[in-house]
Specification:
Elements (H helix, E strand, L loop, with lengths): L5 H13 L7 E4 L3 H15 L5 E4 L2 H9 L13 E6 L3 E2 L5 E2 L6 H9 L1 E9 L13 E5 L4 H10 L3 E4 L1 E2 L2 E2 L7 E6 L6 H9 L4 E4 L1 E2 L5 E5 L5 E4 L7
Parallel strand pairs: 1-2, 1-3, 3-6, 6-14
Antiparallel strand pairs: 4-5, 5-13, 7-11, 7-12, 8-11, 9-10, 14-15
The structure holds ribulose-5-phosphate.
The site of ribulose-5-phosphate has 17 residues, from helix 2 and helix 4.
């Protein structure tokens, strides 16, 4: 019988991730409720003298980081990120991910790719044997011709639902829409990622393949660390 809530497990993973942060680090700051815990814990370390700078992956993260006094690096610099820390919606045994539940997948992928280490923080429930439903795959698409792009995705055999919020289309920080693709089993995440990217109007998808360096999972028994054998990072 579980005694820790999913939120407590997220907080546990986030606290552990903060221990990987070193003085002087440039950090990629992900998006979501698990990252919120990470930022809170990081803010406490800043109060005890730690110096870091951050690259935020969303307006929400930028705003909370600013509130905590975490200095942010502007957009016109080439980002040289030591560690990016982010949550995930699903993690498979190869540490491939589905991300984008919060709609920040494009910026998250740009920042993760610019980082030497990509640390993913999750609660146990995010681990799956195979990516796919019940979590639909978020795909960011341009509003221009969105119905046509959605049609291309549907022609490939998937239900492709434009995401809504309070009865309105959900709009990303980049001014785009999100379509949630209902795919029951994602057998080959790398090939699906490349197929989706070839569709005009698709900006990015929420598959993160061979990007993860380390997954920190909050569990009833304490944090569990799973390292990737290798990543495609520089
Ligand atoms: C946002 C994301 C989040 O990292 C993902 O949705 C996990 O969120 P949470 O930490 O709230 O469970 O990809 O685009």
């Amino acid at each position: 019988m579980s005694s820790l809530t999913p939120d407590q497990l997220k907080a546990q993973a986030a606290q552990t991730a903060v221990e990987f942060v070193q003085d002087g680090h440039v950090l990629g700051l992900g998006t979501g409720s698990t990252v919120h815990h990470f930022l809170t814990a990081l803010g406490k370390r800043l109060q005890s003298g730690l110096r870091v700078r951050g690259v935020p992956t969303s307006q929400a993260t930028a705003s909370y980081a600013t509130q905590l006094g975490i200095p942010l690096i502007d957009n016109d610099k080439i980002w040289d990120i030591d560690v990016a820390v982010d949550g995930a919606d699903q993690v498979d045994p190869q540490l491939h991910l589905i991300k984008g539940g919060g709609g920040a997948l494009l910026r998250e992928k740009i920042v993760a790719r610019a980082a030497r280490q990509f640390i993913v923080i999750v609660d146990e429930a995010k681990h799956v044997s195979q990516l796919g439903l019940p979590f639909p795959l978020p795909v960011e698409i341009l509003p221009f011709g969105w119905r046509t792009t959605q049609g291309h995705l549907e022609t490939m055999g998937w239900l492709a639902a434009r995401r809504e919020q309070a009865g309105q289309p959900f709009v990303t920080d980049n001014g785009n829409f999100i379509v949630d693709l209902h795919i029951s089993h994602i057998d080959d995440p790398a090939s699906l990622e490349s197929t989706l990217r070839q569709i005009p109007g698709v900006v990015e998808c929420g598959l993160f393949v061979h990007m993860t360096s380390l997954v920190i999972t909050g569990t009833e028994q304490g944090p569990r660390l799973t390292r990737a054998p290798q990543t495609s990072h520089p």
